[in-house]
């Protein structure tokens, strides 16, 4: 998909103001409302805009604790990786899940109510994941900076 300057302007606004009206958006990017609507629809259809979501404040919804979990697997065979990845995808408390280069094979970002809740998540879910050889958890004291906006 080829993006022009107008597409980039639309994406920059929409990624931080997903609820902006088409009328306001069209003014901000200097398009007519109908042209703006067509452009956004094309960006959605072609996958440049994947979704519109609400981002709850973790502290306000009883999930203020962030834990980063590094996991090393017992092997690297495709079936080991696939079984592990499918199992992690079913853990509701895992918000991010990355295959890594370095000392750990995977990095998970987990949210919990507190350390006791994380202990429950670890006991009920993480320790039962297939193929795990080593797991190391690090609690974040606080989130200094976080954004979902890409540098477009």
Give the arrangement of secondary structure elements.
Elements: H1 5-14, H2 22-28, H3 33-45, E1 65-73, H4 78-89, E2 94-99, E3 106-112, H5 115-124, E4 132-139
Antiparallel strand pairs: 1-3, 1-4, 2-3
Helix pairs in contact: 2-3
Query: Could you estimate the helical fraction of the residues in percent?
Result: 25-40%
| Class from secondary-structure proportions | alpha+beta
Helix tally equals: 5
Report the sheet with the most strands, covering strand number, pairing sense and barrel closure. Answer: 4 strands, antiparallel
Beta-strand percent range: 15-25%
| Spatial strand arrangement across the major sheet | 2-3-1-4
Radius of gyration over all CA atoms, rounded = 20 Å
Model regions low in confidence, pLDDT < 50 over at least 5 residues: none
- How many separate domains? 2
The top level CATH class name of the largest domain: Alpha Beta
Question: How do the helices and strands follow one another from N- to C-terminus?
Answer: HHHEHEEHE
CATH superfamily of the largest domain: Lrp/AsnC effector binding domain/regulation of amino acid metabolism (RAM) domain
- The oligomeric state is single chain
């Amino acid at each position: 998909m080829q993006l022009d300057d107008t597409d980039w302007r639309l994406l920059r606004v929409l990624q931080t103001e997903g609820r902006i009206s088409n009328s306001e958006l069209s003014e901000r990017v200097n398009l007519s409302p109908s042209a703006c609507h067509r452009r956004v629809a094309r960006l959605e259809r072609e996958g440049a805009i994947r979704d519109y979501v609400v981002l709850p404040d973790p502290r306000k919804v009883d999930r203020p604790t962030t834990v980063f979990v590094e996991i090393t697997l017992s092997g690297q065979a495709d079936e080991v990786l696939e079984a592990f990845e499918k199992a992690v995808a079913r853990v509701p408390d895992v918000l991010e899940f990355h295959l890594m280069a370095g000392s750990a094979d995977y990095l998970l970002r987990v949210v919990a109510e507190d350390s006791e809740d994380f202990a429950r998540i670890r006991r009920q879910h993480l320790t039962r994941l297939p193929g795990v050889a080593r797991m190391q958890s690090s609690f974040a004291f606080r989130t200094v900076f976080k954004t979902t906006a890409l540098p477009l």
